[in-house]
């Protein structure tokens, strides 16, 4: 089934540098190279996807500006989720600057690399409090151990639009689901929180995963958030360590094939357009 407007809500682009991208470990060597819009274009075309949201992979404003530059040259990039120092003294000024650049839709910090308490420190909360005034969204990138703190965060800002990246990276490889499921059900009760159906294959066994490994996790977030708060995303090119784009998207398409046309259109495009104001 073709979607009228299909959006991949989660891509990365980079010019590979060992120091900048030190998180790309030896066992991820397949992605230790440049990945740019021209590399993605034929893949999106093959999958009938109309555009994407480019998400930061490095914690500098240079990264944000790099993605903005790519968006200027590539109409397929419909939005940018950049990085900004939410704890900075001049945050107001920096948010005002990026508000003048319409392709910038929101921001993200790699919270998965921080202690859960990081997101509850007063200086960080003060920064989150300013985002709504400038119309910016916030991507929450966390592991399951961070979900309790994430709940405390979103509870304090009921009018701020949040989205959880990669269904909070559950332990699919180990088949652990119960504690994560309970926390996802709880955080989904906050109506200002959406969830990206993304990043699952890299949390599974890279060599042996099957769709049956992934379906229980998709089912959990679908039941918790409903099809009106789920955004399809690929996490390309990170997904390539475990699957081609086609291998990654096919189980997601298969799972949602039993849903109505309207629900499929929401998950694969309309929700991202609404959430990010694309």
How would you write the strand order of the largest sheet? Answer: 1-2-3-4-5-6-7-8
What class, by secondary structure content?
alpha/beta
Count of discrete domains: 1
Q: N-to-C terminal Cα separation, in Å?
A: 23 Å
Q: Could you name the ranges where pLDDT drops below 50 across 5 or more consecutive residues?
A: none
The total beta strand count reads: 8
Treating each run of at least 4 consecutive H or I residues as one helix, how many helices?
Answer: 9
Taking all Cα atoms into account, the compactness measure Rg is: 17 Å
- Give the helix proportion (percent range): 25-40%
In percent, how much strand structure appears in the residues? 5-15%
CATH homologous superfamily title: Metal-dependent hydrolases
CATH topology: TIM Barrel
CATH architecture: Alpha-Beta Barrel
Order of helices and strands: EHEHEHEHEHEHEHEHH
Would you state the CATH class? Alpha Beta
- What is the residue-mean pLDDT, rounded to a whole number? 95
What is the approximate shape? globular
Largest sheet data: 8 strands, parallel
How would you characterize the overall build of this protein?
- By secondary structure, the chain is an alpha/beta fold.
- It has a single domain (7-276), classed as TIM Barrel (Alpha-Beta Barrel), CATH 3.20.20.140.
- 38% of the residues lie in helices and 13% in strands.
- The protein is built from 9 helices and 8 strands.
- The protein has helices spanning 37-46, 61-73, 91-99, 122-131, 147-156, 178-187, 211-225, 245-256, 261-276; strands at 7-11, 51-55, 77-82, 104-109, 137-140, 162-164, 193-197, 230-232.
- An 8-stranded parallel β-sheet has the order 1-2-3-4-5-6-7-8.
- Strand 7 (193-197), helix 7 and strand 8 form a beta-alpha-beta unit.
- Helix 5 runs parallel beside helix 6 (178-187) and helix 6 (178-187) packs parallel to helix 7 (211-225).
- It starts with 6 loop residues before the first strand and ends with a helix.
- 43% of the residues are buried.
